[in-house]
Amino acid sequence: TKARSADEYREVLASNTEELERLSRMVSDMLFLAQADHAMTIPTREPIDLASETQAVLDFYEALASEKHLALSLAGTGSMSGNRLMLRRALSNLLSNAIRHTPEGGAIKVVLSSAEHAVQISVSNTGAPIPAELHARLFDRFYRVDASRERMGQGAGLGLAITDSIVRAHGGEIKLFSEGDMTKFTLIFPQLDKALAAS
Ligand SMILES: Nc1ncnc2c1ncn2[C@@H]1O[C@H](COP(=O)(O)OP(=O)(O)OP(=O)(O)O)[C@@H](O)[C@H]1O
Ligand SMILES: [Mg+2]
User: Fold this and answer.
1) How many whole angstroms from 191 Cα to the centroid of ligand 1?
2) Domain count of the fold of the chain
3) What is the Å distance from ligand 1's center to 58 Cα?
4) Which of 32, 68, 144, 152 most suits a substitution to test ligand 1, by most atoms within 8 Å of the C-beta?
5) Distance CA 124, CA 102 (A)
């Protein structure tokens, strides 16, 4: 109804684009979960070198992390059989959460370790812990702590539900430890080949 400057239009378009990206991500997340409900299976399995896969995901987040002066680190090695894209998505969800919730100047550590019949990937970050009474609901779809206080344009609360379904599709589980000034999510994947070889 009123003529506006090119700059004003540019700003409105940019914010529309941002909102569209958020909505399209939410739709694709919801589709992913709907599919996971039907078939908790993995499209294709392949051998995965966890150190190089994790490093690739970390590289992607490096710029965001350095904006907040967060130290990202990776330790340990491990390998597993699984779906590479799903694993990346699971890690990526944990890292994006960690980056969002770690206070400026904090640290995010990814540690890989192999136990007898399982391989573990833990992602920990510094910062205030998540109250224990909320831990069980955190993995529910659309659940977000402090949703009312957070601004529009943030996540939909699907990331952990997706990570959980990816881990379960691999026969694994996810554990949460959050106390003191540290929050740690651990993905535990059974080593199918080793478990079979031993039986
Ligand atoms: N590392 C963390 N530290 C503190 N709180 C966390 C951390 N990871 C997750 N949370 C809490 O768990 C809630 C659910 O996380 P989840 O990843 O499922 O959703 P989201 O990040 O809000 O949205 P989305 O992942 O869909 O963008 C978050 O809203 C946040 O309150
Ligand atoms: Mg998230």
Assistant:
1) 28
2) 1
3) 18
4) 144
5) 10
Q: What is the pLDDT of residue 149?
A: 55
Q: What is the pLDDT of residue 151?
A: 54
Residue 1, in any domain of the structure: no
State which H helix or E strand residue 91 sits in.
helix 84-101
Q: Is 178 in the pocket of ligand 1 (CB under 6 A)?
A: no
Q: Which domain holds residue 114?
A: 6-198
Cβ of 165 less than 6 Å from ligand 1? no
Q: Is the CB of 82 under 6 A from ligand 1?
A: no
Kindly report the length of the chain.
199
Q: Please report the pLDDT score of residue 119 as a whole number.
A: 97
Give me the pLDDT at residue 34, please: 78
Give the model's pLDDT for residue 36.
Answer: 75
**95 in ligand 1 pocket by Cβ < 6 Å?**
no
Question: Which positions ≥6 away from 75 have C-beta within 8 Å?
Answer: 109, 110, 111, 112
Q: 3-state SS of the chain: helix, strand, coil percent to 5?
A: 45, 25, 30
Query: What pLDDT, on the 0 to 100 scale, is given for residue 101?
Result: 95
pLDDT at residue number 118: 95
Indicate which CATH number applies to the domain containing 48: 3.30.565.10
Task: Give the residues of the chain that fall short of pLDDT 50.
Answer: none
Give residue 68's pLDDT: 96
Q: Is residue 103 domain-resident? A: yes
